[in-house]
């Protein structure tokens, strides 16, 4: 396999063009009405490796909402504050055969399966300390820190759209409150909707992937949050549940910790080496970016990046 230091715009462009057709095969998420307005044909591919070297191709300036990718940031913050047991006493480390918005075993064991599916993610955000909007602001600040971009913000219209249609998420929230796992009010659910509505680019996702791939050290070398154990924990959850019920098959084909969002983004960590960010809003039946998955797969094959 080729050396990753040879990854160039040309490399990424040829992979992008080869897979552009997948962006017309999937379906843009429209269960959140505001997301349905996205341009299905948009596509971007980004890589960040050693010393913060960035390679970007496609619609590199196009912003989209991070959606479920925000769950890994929330997990990091909750674990930093509460310790690993303070979070995982309340949920499992399990993989899943169920879609991201499934109630899974909230009705049986009472606890969410993992922090990557909606139930566990909503609970994770509720564990971050602070009144009202404060927990969300911590997530936003962490995204700004990791990407080194203070202009990153959330989309009010996507947030409003999620809030007014997110009845399954509201149902999970109250079931967990009933089970004694959540103690706060609906502000905590709003924080989850807001974190999902944070807008960024594929390059930002590559920087997030890089961060977890490198023990929570930023792409420019800033080591303020360096923590090998937290990075391992987050990466292990990405590996077993980051692509939801597709995670097992994805581990076979791609073999790297990754996290998708229904906005069409996927962030990938190549442990100790680099971060990959892709964006293409047309989703497959699992809610993962269709062209995004295929671009990652081709890069991984070409450069021998699988862990296995
Ligand atoms: N905001 C979305 C939801 O809760 C996030 C889901 C996702 O990206 N898979 O439905």
TrEMBL record:
- Keyword Cell wall biogenesis/degradation listed: no
Q: Which residues bind substrate per the record?
A: 68, 118, 162, 169, 192, 244, 262
Recorded E.C. number(s)?
Answer: 3.5.1.2
What catalytic reaction does the record list?
L-glutamine + H2O = L-glutamate + NH4(+)
Gene Ontology MF terms in the entry: glutaminase activity
Please cite one Gene Ontology biological process associated with this protein: glutamate biosynthetic process
Which Gene3D superfamilies has this protein been placed in?
A: DD-peptidase/beta-lactamase superfamily (3.40.710.10)
Alphabetical list of Pfam families matching this protein = Glutaminase
Q: Which InterPro entries match?
A: Beta-lactam/transpept-like, Glutaminase
Q: Which UniProt keywords apply?
A: Acetylation, Hydrolase, Membrane, Transmembrane, Transmembrane helix
Determine the domain of life of the protein's source.
Bacteria
Q: How does it assemble?
A: Homotetramer.
Query: What family is this?
Result: Belongs to the glutaminase family.
Question: How is this protein named in the record?
Answer: Glutaminase
Species per Swiss-Prot/TrEMBL record: Chryseobacterium shigense
């Amino acid at each position: 396999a080729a050396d990753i230091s040879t990854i160039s715009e040309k490399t990424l462009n040829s992979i992008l063009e080869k897979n552009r057709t997948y962006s017309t095969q999937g379906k843009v998420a429209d269960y959140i009405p505001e997301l349905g307005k996205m341009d299905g044909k948009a596509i971007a591919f980004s890589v960040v490796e050693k010393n913060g070297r960035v390679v970007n191709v496609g619609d590199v300036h196009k912003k989209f909402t991070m959606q479920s990718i925000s769950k890994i940031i929330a997990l990091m913050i909750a674990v930093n504050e509460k310790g690993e047991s303070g979070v995982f006493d309340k949920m499992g480390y399990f993989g899943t055969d169920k879609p991201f918005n499934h109630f899974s075993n909230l009705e049986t064991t009472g606890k969410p399966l993992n922090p990557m599916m909606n139930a566990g993610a909503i609970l994770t955000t509720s564990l971050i300390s602070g009144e009202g909007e404060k927990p969300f602001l911590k997530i936003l600040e962490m995204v700004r820190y990791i990407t080194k971009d203070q202009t990153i913000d959330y989309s009010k219209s996507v947030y409003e759209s999620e809030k007014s249609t997110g009845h399954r998420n509201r149902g999970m929230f109250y079931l967990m409150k009933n089970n004694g796992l959540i103690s706060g009010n609906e502000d905590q659910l709003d924080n989850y909707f807001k974190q999902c509505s944070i807008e960024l680019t594929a390059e930002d996702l590559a920087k997030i992937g890089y961060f977890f791939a490198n023990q929570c050290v930023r792409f420019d070398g800033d080591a303020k949050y360096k923590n090998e154990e937290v990075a391992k924990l987050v990466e292990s959850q990405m590996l077993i549940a980051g692509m939801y019920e597709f995670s097992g098959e994805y581990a076979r084909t791609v073999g790297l910790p990754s996290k998708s969002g229904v906005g069409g983004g996927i962030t990938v960590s190549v442990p100790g080496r680099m971060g990959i960010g892709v964006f293409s809003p047309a989703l497959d039946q699992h809610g993962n970016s269709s062209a995004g998955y295929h671009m990652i797969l081709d890069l991984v094959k070409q450069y021998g990046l699988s862990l296995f």
